[in-house]
Amino acid sequence: MSVATGPWSRRAVVALAAGSLLLTAACSGRSDDSSSSGSGSSSDQPIVVGMSFPLSGPLAGAAAVADGASAYFQHVNADGGINGRKIDYQLLDDGYDPARQADNARQLISEDSAGVVLTFGGISSATAPYLNAQKVAQVAFGTQAALSDTDATPYTRGWFPDGSWEGQVVGQHIAEAAPGATVGVLGINNDLTTSQVEGLTAAGVTPAKVLTVAPGVVDLTSQLNELRGAGVDTLFLAVVGPAQSATLRTMADIGYKPQVYLYSAASDFATSIGPAGLPNVTGALTAQYFKDPADPRWADDEGVQAFRSDIAEYGDAKNADSYLAIEGYGAAAAIVATLEESGGEGGEAFTEAWDGIDGEDNPALLPDMQLSAGPGSRLVHQYRVLQFDGTSWQDAGDVVDAAGLTQG
Amino acid sequence: MATSISEPAGAVPATQAAPGAASALTTPGRVVHRPIWRRPVTWAWTALFVVGLLLPFLISDYDLFKATRVLTIAIAVAGLNLLIGRAGQISAGHGALYGLGAYTAMILVKELDWAWPLAVLAAVAVSGVAGWLIGLPALRVRGLNLGLLTIAIAAVFPLLLNRFSGLTGGTVGLQLAGSPITPPESWGLTPEQFQFLLLVLVVTVVLVVLRNLSTGPLGRSIEALRVNPLMARSEGVDVNRLTLTVFGISSAVAGLGGALGGLVLASTVPDSYSMFFSLTLLSACVVGGSRTWAGALLGAAFIVYLPDLISQQIGSTTGGQWSQLVYAAALLLTLFFLPSGVAGGIGRLLARSTRRPERT
Q1: How do residues A144-187 score in pLDDT, each as one tens digit?
Q2: Are the CB atoms for A233 and A207 separated by under 8 Å?
Q3: β-bridge partners, A399
Q4: In what order do the strands lie in the sheet with A156-158?
Q5: Which of B176, B291, B327 faces A129 most closely, judged by CB atoms?
Q6: Is the CATH number 3.40.1130.10 carried by domain A47-161+300-377?
Q7: Complex ipTM, two decimals?
Q8: What is the fold of A163-288+383-404?
Q9: Which of A8, A53, A316 is facing B347, going by the closest CB pair?
Q10: Model confidence over A304-341: pLDDT tens digits?
């Protein structure tokens, strides 16, 4: 059927024309006042915080981060809000599609008048230019170095630590604990592994073998044999998802026992070491900054208890053991602390308050650590090497600050 | 050439249809060769065009931005319609060509400071050549095998973008401070209004060109290729050349959509052009109706608006994958009840409800 074929097709086009006119009525109309950017500043208005997260699609697991953040915002609202102003958080799904995240950013700013927008993942850098042009503060949940570039994107702030730092902290630990070790890296084939290897090298540890696999590949037996064949006795293991636990199990099965360093975000009980079998992980190390709510060590910890009760009351109780959820919970706490300083303002007032944070306690951070604006204006920039003793992660080193590390 | 290959059996009695290109096309022995600009456009499409021109002055910039995205995707889907609906070839890799167009335009604008119209034209050319090359294996494999082969292209494309990170910016991609597609100041339009109007014009041109390609003498060769390549060859159609031409045109059109999409968004990221996006384009083509041009618009609207709509209704941090499940179910039901796509389905429904006697 071509454009002009027959009455059926023509009617479809008529319907399309009529339908789009009807849709017009459903859309919001044009208003000429373009003063909507930035948050409303009157003292009794709610503070609008926009959030765009992958609630569906390949990274839907990140919904737990949003769940943790939402639980904290609701907790603050139940306690009366920020200086009497409620937090009106608007959560949208972007399915980890940069185009949908860009859509959401526009909706959050032009329809909801958000002064702060939270975005998840490396695709945050795709939305940064728009948010910066609108002078709206962006808090990005990503490890990419581009999100630390406050010269290029002055309104963008990164929440997680920069990905390259962890490699350096691990490298320093290896250099002290086992100089002369044959180091191997098994990671996933994206920029995460690249930045980790760069970090190791910067700390003076050049891996003898770096193997990368696609995310989702779970059986890594041949890679492990290759590492063993190369004489690797110290392994940085940074495959994510089910592959991490499967690999730890395989290592136990084939009797390959190098000193293992686990990637910080893949060392939690719920998804990594629990499924691997705790005895198989005993002795492993990790460079960590957040508490794992499932770790029995934190059962009586004030921050973790607050997280557990809030997530049970306001969020999904299933996330009570989720490392991702406490990441979001901690981020929301940092955002609320920033908004208290900025008087509820987004935009430049928010980024200034963020950069001014110094010595703020946070429920998600390990003991002896505090939030402060570190390199690249990231609030989380301290690490501590932990060792798994068979039941929980115990301190195995001093707090290391990224301010003392080489900055990429 | 036989009429039977021009219209599938059981379709509209096109020979009886009142004025229109189709009657000229299918009436045996009365083939009229009109210049491209003289071929008729129905009043319905004209009405739609006018609606498109009015829309920017009625709805908000946010809604326009979203509608502009629908149009850029509709361009790519129209390219797929030519390939799948008309020529009977299959490509599950058009997302990569869309991405290739976006990246080409973005690199030219960002790194080489080209004016955006030139960058868009260059992107069209690059995508067209890439599509022509993809067409080469299509000369040997068909059907399911070709589908698999093009899926591989879709899967490899984001990896290539990461590999050549010096040129493409790696996983972070390339960004501009703002879209280069802005109106001259004296016009008094917002960028969103201007971009939407531009896209309305581009979509119109693309649809008219594709329509004319598929109704002229070339169109009948393409139909023959779809129905039976052997028969087409025996009728004197150079099947290999035609296949490559169709792949090239279809890909160039996809690259055009991608270039405009990337420049409007002012950002290109590998995650935008994953294999999943290629398959989404394919489903837009099938859901809209691969043999109607209105289907390209409907299919694009379907894949852009429906996931958002569903997420708004049931998406939550605790909803898990429900929104995806509902989307999948909606997709399935649409295909089950409207096998010829939404466009075909609406047309049929209206025809039944109005019950107007067919004009003779």
Answers
A1: 888 888 999 999 999 989 888 999 999 999 999 999 999 999 99
A2: no
A3: A384
A4: A87-93, A47-53, A116-120, A137-141, A156-158
A5: B176
A6: no
A7: 0.81
A8: Rossmann fold (3.40.50)
A9: A8
A10: 999 999 999 999 889 999 999 999 999 999 999 999 99
